[in-house]
């Protein structure tokens, strides 16, 4: 996949199938649009996802994303997309008239032969451009345009904001259904205090990324992918109040204890998927009390996945269409 990031200086000369939006999370609704592009790819069109560049800003809670830029790129490349355009959102671009956006970007720069969008997609200055305008301009600019209905879950349309709200409340199963995968993060395993080794619960530790949406502090039933294999795990996201003297000032860490895995993994890349919020983080009276609770958490983890299978989903979920 070719990534064109934070520049207006590009030109695609091949005919393309384009979809437009923020694509934070790349949830089931987004995937409906991507699948439409892949159908056009079979007809010889190059596929393009057009979005705007969101720079990572450390410490800015409002720019934390379900899928930060690097995650989004990996997901779209694996999906089979040919081009990802992360267009700069400058003052000039912000003031672009909707018709100029269609003529100058869709028609000239992207060479669009097919355009797909959701029903509430808006663009251009003061978001005055909409799907009605895209439809109206399609014949003038020579592209086919199609609007795709939203996908619904539990009677309500799926959206990135709805998924963010679920995650902020620890409703990981609902987020998983709407994303079509568990909420996860990847990173390089760092050294910790090695206290887990002393009580038989060694952990793999990650620093929580500054551009990744935060989850509630607490313990999660999870899975960890490392070296091509996946293991059940109990994962704590928090500040380790039992072992840190000043926990409130410590880094937010993810600590995953993998069941049936005992090797060292410092420097390894892992992916941690959070399936279920089990309990809040607690300051225990000592390591013995912590160890006893971890035994209970381990049993809960094994039971959870025995009941739900490898994908963590209960049987009977049916995708709805709005």
UniProtKB/TrEMBL annotation:
Enzyme class per UniProt: transferase
Family: Belongs to the ribF family.
Organism field: Anthropogastromicrobium aceti
Domain Riboflavin kinase: 178-306
E.C. no: 2.7.1.26, 2.7.7.2
SMART domains: Flavokinase
Nucleotidyltransferase recorded as keyword: yes
Pfam families: FAD_syn, Flavokinase
Matches recorded under NCBIfam families: PRK05627.1-5 (NF004162), ribF (TIGR00083)
Domain of life, source organism: Bacteria
Reaction it catalyzes: FMN + ATP + H(+) = FAD + diphosphate; riboflavin + ATP = FMN + ADP + H(+)
Name of this protein: Riboflavin biosynthesis protein
One GO term (biological process): FAD biosynthetic process
Entry keywords, A to Z: ATP-binding, FAD, Flavoprotein, FMN, Kinase, Multifunctional enzyme, Nucleotide-binding, Nucleotidyltransferase, Transferase
GO terms assigned for molecular function: ATP binding; FMN adenylyltransferase activity; riboflavin kinase activity
Pathway the protein acts in: Cofactor biosynthesis; FMN biosynthesis; FMN from riboflavin (ATP route): step 1/1; Cofactor biosynthesis; FAD biosynthesis; FAD from FMN: step 1/1
């Amino acid at each position: 996949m070719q990534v064109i990031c934070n520049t207006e200086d590009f030109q695609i000369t091949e005919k393309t199938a384009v979809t437009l939006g923020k694509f934070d999370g790349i949830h089931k609704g987004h995937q409906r649009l991507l699948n439409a592009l892949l159908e056009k790819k079979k007809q010889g069109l190059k596929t393009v996802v057009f979005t705007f560049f969101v720079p990572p800003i450390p410490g800015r809670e409002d720019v934390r994303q379900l899928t930060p830029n690097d995650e989004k790129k990996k997901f779209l490349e694996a999906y089979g997309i040919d081009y990802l355009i992360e267009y700069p959102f400058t003052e000039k671009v912000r003031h672009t008239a909707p018709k100029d956006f269609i003529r100058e970007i869709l028609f000239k720069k992207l060479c669009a032969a097919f355009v797909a969008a959701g029903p509430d997609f808006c663009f251009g200055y003061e978001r005055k451009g909409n799907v009605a305008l895209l439809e109206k301009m399609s014949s003038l600019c020579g592209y086919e345009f199609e609007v795709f209905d939203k996908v619904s879950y539990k009677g309500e349309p799926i959206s990135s904001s709805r998924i963010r709200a679920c995650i902020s409340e620890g409703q990981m199963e609902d987020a998983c259904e709407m994303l079509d995968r568990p909420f996860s993060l990847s990173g390089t395993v760092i050294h910790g205090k090695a206290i887990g080794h002393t009580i038989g619960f060694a952990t793999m530790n990650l620093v929580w990324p500054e551009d990744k949406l935060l989850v509630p502090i607490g313990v999660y039933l999870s899975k960890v992918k490392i070296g091509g294999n996946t293991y059940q795990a109990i994962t704590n996201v928090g500040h380790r109040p039992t072992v840190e003297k000043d926990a409130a000032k410590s880094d937010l860490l993810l600590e995953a204890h993998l069941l049936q895995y005992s090797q060292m993994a410092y420097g390894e890349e892992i992916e941690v998927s959070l399936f279920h919020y089990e309990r809040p983080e607690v300051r225990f009276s000592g390591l013995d009390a912590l160890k006893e609770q971890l035994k209970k958490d381990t049993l809960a983890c094994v039971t959870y996945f025995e009941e739900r299978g490898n994908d963590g989903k209960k049987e009977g979920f049916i995708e709805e269409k709005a």
